[in-house]
Amino acid sequence: xxxxxxxxxxxxxxxxxxxxxxxxxxxxxxxxxxxxxxxxxxxxxxxxxxxxxxxxxxxxxxxxxxxxxxxxxxxxxxxxxxxxxxxxxxxxxxxxxxxxxxxxxxxxxxxxxxxxxxxxx
Amino acid sequence: xxxxxxxxxxxxxxxxxxxxxxxxxxxxxxxxxxxxxxxxxxxxxxxxxxxxxxxxxxxxxxxxxxxxxxxxxxxxxxxxxxxxxxxxxxxxxxxxxxxxxxxxxxxxxxxxxxxxxxxxx
DNA sequence: CTACCATATGAAGATACACTCATATAACGG
DNA sequence: CCGTTATATGAGTGTATCTTCATATGGTAG
Lengths: 121, 121
Fold this sequence. Notes:
Two copies of one chain form a homodimer.
Chain A (H helix, E strand, L loop, with lengths): L31 H10 L2 H13 L3 E2 H8 L3 H13 L3 E6 L2 E6 L1 H16 L2
Antiparallel strand pairs in A: 1-3, 2-3
Helix pairs in contact in A: 2-4, 3-4
Chain B binds a DNA duplex through helix 4.
């Protein structure tokens, strides 16, 4: 399998008007952390939670996030744990409550998306 | 199933130092488009393609993207189609080649991620 | 035309994912 | 203490997702 591709560097030199405008080299292996950040946002529950936290512009306890998202306690807990794992939210414990807050990177990503949606509407 | 939650508005008024700092209302249904954008980036092949395009800072033909990502022709084609569908890349046909280019929103999201990675390293 | 090349697309199998359920932990209130 | 509340976590399951294979399309060169 993988019957070798590499089409153009063959025969003569097809680099003038053909493809190949020198493709930059990037380390593909090191992309996984970043993919995980986007993967954490690639789900309605988790993205909705981030949006709520960004809109709240401050701390919100987990129990206040579940109802508007219409998901169970377990679901929001799983969701917030994953968001925390990739650094999209911070959390603080107070008594029996756990307060969550969006991190700067979360705010920035949402901000970019909002600006984009604003543009082409 | 779903034995109704809504914990605090019950008994007395537990809003002072408890949770509930007025959770903002957002339209959860309208989030799907945005989730699709992040979902498109939540895969190594697709994210790698976007990174290559952003790094290239210009057009790159599909055949030049497959080798560095170590994926098949079919895989890169599927990947680019999906990225195009959500507006993360643009494309232009020239002869039998198809040139892809990152869109502004793609560049901005990558830019935010890079700045973030820079920060906590 | 006919061969070949770059790309696209549909179906299909293997894998990963997001819930739910059950249960655990921890903090408060009586 | 014991019951209740808020949250966390592991297992299990239905569903979605990604890649490959096969094939289609559209362009180019002989």
